[in-house]
Each structure stands twice: as C-alpha cells, then as structure tokens.
Amino acid sequence: MNWTDEEIKTGIEHCFGDATDIFLVDVKMNASRRGYQLIAKCESDSGITIDQLARINRSIHNNLSLPGLDIEKVSVEVTSPGASFPVKTARHFRRLSGHLMIIDHRNAAVQNPLEGEIVSAASETLTVKVKQDDVVLNMSDVVQGKVKLRW
Q: Are 64 and 71 in contact (CB under 8 A)?
C-alpha cells in the first residue's frame, strides 16, 4: 500500500498524547523485505530526551492507525533530527536561536545563501545577524537553513 505523507503524519500525531512541546519534524515510510520501516524525526522546544523518544516509539507502535496497515509488519524508528537536517519552519529556527546557520532563501535583495546567527523567528519573519547587521527575511521566502558546525 502507498500512503501519502499527510496520511502518515495524521496517523502518528495522535500518538504524542499529552506531550504538547514535542512535535513531528519529518516522517518516512519505506517498504522493506518484511513489511515497512517507519522513521519519525521528533523534536521539542526545550530539547528531547532518549526517554521521550522511546515513549513515542512505543506509542506509535501501539497506536499507529493507517488504513490497511498491519502494525506487526512495521519497524518503528523514532529519532531526533541531526545537525545536518534542513530547518524549514519558524518553530525549528526559534529552537536554534543563537546558532550559526546557512540559510537558502528566495529574496533577491539579500545575499543567497545567507550565513549568520539566528536572532529570532516568528511565524512571518526570520531575523539573522550577519556581521554587525540584522537581516530580516519573510518566512515565506526561506527555503531551508542548516546549522553551520564550528570546528
């Protein structure tokens, strides 16, 4: 069977229960030799723990609801996104406030990609400190951001 990403997200989101600060970042369902592999990337506004990931994993395995899916044929993996995972929403940028990032965007008036420190993120705007200046981008212009690791 093939399910859309939205169907899979809807089937998973009720598994978070009362964990209101934990949210689903990305989900993939891949066919495997024994059935399916479900990989869910979750995050929290305050940082996510291994115990929280394990609790969500159990909840998904016990409560996943997709039409025609036999849960016994699903391998569930719940992780947090790594530093190389592309950031796309204001909530993700807000979580990374103070971090150095490389941001791809569609604003022709601003250097692309933009490299700077995240100052703030709201539903409509993203503010990035580039050298001494604050650059404000519309969130609708932001394609993605990636954390720039300092070595």
A: yes
Q: For residue 150, how many C-alpha atoms fall within 13 Å in the half-sphere facing its CB?
A: 7
Tokens, residue 146:
């990636």
pTM for the whole structure: 0.70
Domains, the chain, ordered by start: 5-79 (3.30.300.70), 90-147 (2.30.30.100)
The span from the CA of 74 to the CA of 57, in Å, is: 12
Q: What are the pLDDT digits (tens) for 89-136?
A: 898 898 889 999 999 999 999 999 999 999 999 999 999 999 999 999
- Residue 60: CB partners within 8 Å, gap ≥ 6? 12, 15, 38, 40, 76, 78
Residue (of 105, 85, 89) closest to 130 by Cα position: 105
For residue 127, the one-letter residue type is T
What's the first-to-final CA gap in the chain, in angstroms? Answer: 45
